[in-house]
Amino acid sequence: MIKIVTVCGAGVGSSMMERLFTQQILDGENIEGVVDASDIGSVDPNSYDIVVTTSDFADQLSETKAEVIRINNLMDKDYLKKELLAAIAKINQSEEN
Amino acid sequence: MKILLYFINNVLSQPIFIIGIVVIVGMAAEKKSWDKILPSTLKAIIGFTMINVGGQTLGTALLPLQLMISRIFRVKAPNLTDIGATQASSLASIGTEMALIFALGFLVNILLARFTPLKFVHLSPHVSFFFAGMIAALLKFNTKLTIVPLVLIGAVILGLYMTLSCAYVNILIKPVKGADGFTLGHSSSSGLLVASILGKFLGNKDHDLEKMKIPKKLNFLREMTIALTIVMTLLFFFLGLFSGNGWIMQNVSGGKDIVVFSITKGVEFGMWITVIITGVRMMLAEIIPAFHGVADKLIPNAKPGLDVPLLFPNYPTSVIVGFLCSLTTGLIGMLILGAANYPVIVFPALIPTFFTGAVTAIFGNAHGGTRGAILGSCANGFLLIFGQALLLPLVGSFAPIMRILSETDYCVYGPILGFFLKAIGGA
């Protein structure tokens, strides 16, 4: 069960959309996971496996063990998919070791 | 028949049931099972209640601003509208109409995309939800319409607004970087029009504002809650300074000096904003996928109208500069209105100032470089404050929400619609 959070400034607009795209990718790949949307002010990255956000917010995230995916073209679903699957593979690998 | 009437009067008159029904219908259309629908529906209703309570209480928290501004400018207008007086029934009195206009307005937008050449689908429900509220309030408080015609007329107005704002922003957005394949569905559209025109005729595209790098340290201003808390604290502090510390301690703060008072008030403001935004998030988290689902099914070839922060990664400097420019002119406008003894106390609505300020600077910059960005976002600040001043008396119990959420389109189109309704005699 992978836990993912999408982050933007207010947590209602673009992060909500990224959450939807992320969920679609997970469903398409039959990967079990929950996706939340949050704002940079209140998010706790450590309670998630993966954080999806833009570069400027990625710099502001507190130190975290979570995989951070930086995406600057929020409409680029292919890039998101590639990065997501890579991050999930990485997490699965570290769990096996 | 009796049962139906009972149902309408006792159940459907409660906005939370309407919101619930909208979520259930939306999720049923997505073929979700009841174990998903039930929690989502409850979350949406709790979210709506948070917005309602947050809006009411925030209005009360802002009361001291009214006292201070009246004191500084010695406003003695005979019909000074009291912020507190409109608190009682904030969303409750128009919530039902608001929720229905919100749902049906989206359908009008879909139908227009389906059957006219304007193939745009407005996918920012957090924008259209509050716009629906403004339309509901304008119709309710300025006409004698009963609920059915009110909702139908409101839905047509909202649907037209959603489609047309996407359509003209689609033309303006051409020179903006990183906006391929989408337009904006956002209530800053009238400000974008003004900023683009100012940039085009008075600016120079070659002086790109983004060449100027602002210190990375200023990035914390991108954190909404933090930026707004700081600005609000400063606003309370400076108004307190002009009102006089002694006067404040005696009449407003219950004995706290202005430093302590302004910090507690600023933090309080940040907290209620967080409550409202969290409410919006809880309410819409479940509705947004349904919106996307319906749009994908019915109009797969439509261009989506999305939220403004999608453009922010490419324009970090414009975002901060735009916010500060709009805030500055908003504060100037506030002082002008105070000095002119305007009967309604207004102060800049900070969330709108942030988002519309940022995006008007982006468009101003794309059409006319640095000068375009500054002119555009400064003009936007004036539109926000003077428009809000005209809008507040027209929206009755929705005023507290409009004090904190009225973006440029609310301030421009709201008064136009309101005065039109008044002119045709409130038929």
UniProtKB/TrEMBL annotation, chain A:
Whether Transferase counts among this entry's keywords is yes
Highest taxon of the source?
Bacteria
Q: Which UniProt keywords apply?
A: Transferase
One Pfam short name: PTS_IIB
The record's GO molecular-function terms, alphabetically, read: protein-N(PI)-phosphohistidine-sugar phosphotransferase activity
Which residues belong to any copy of the PTS EIIB type-2 domain?
2-92
Tell me if Transferase is a UniProt keyword of this record: yes
List GO BP terms, alphabetically: phosphoenolpyruvate-dependent sugar phosphotransferase system
Q: What is this protein called?
A: PTS ascorbate transporter subunit IIB
TrEMBL record, chain B:
Does the keyword field hold Transmembrane?
A: yes
Major place of residence: membrane
Q: How does it sit in the membrane?
A: Multi-pass membrane protein
Keyword terms, alphabetized:
Cell membrane, Membrane, Phosphotransferase system, Sugar transport, Transmembrane, Transmembrane helix, Transport
* Its job: The phosphoenolpyruvate-dependent sugar phosphotransferase system (sugar PTS), a major carbohydrate active transport system, catalyzes the phosphorylation of incoming sugar substrates concomitantly with their translocation across the cell membrane. The enzyme II UlaABC PTS system is involved in ascorbate transport.
Q: Family assignment?
A: Belongs to the UlaA family.
What is the protein name stated in its UniProt record? Ascorbate-specific PTS system EIIC component
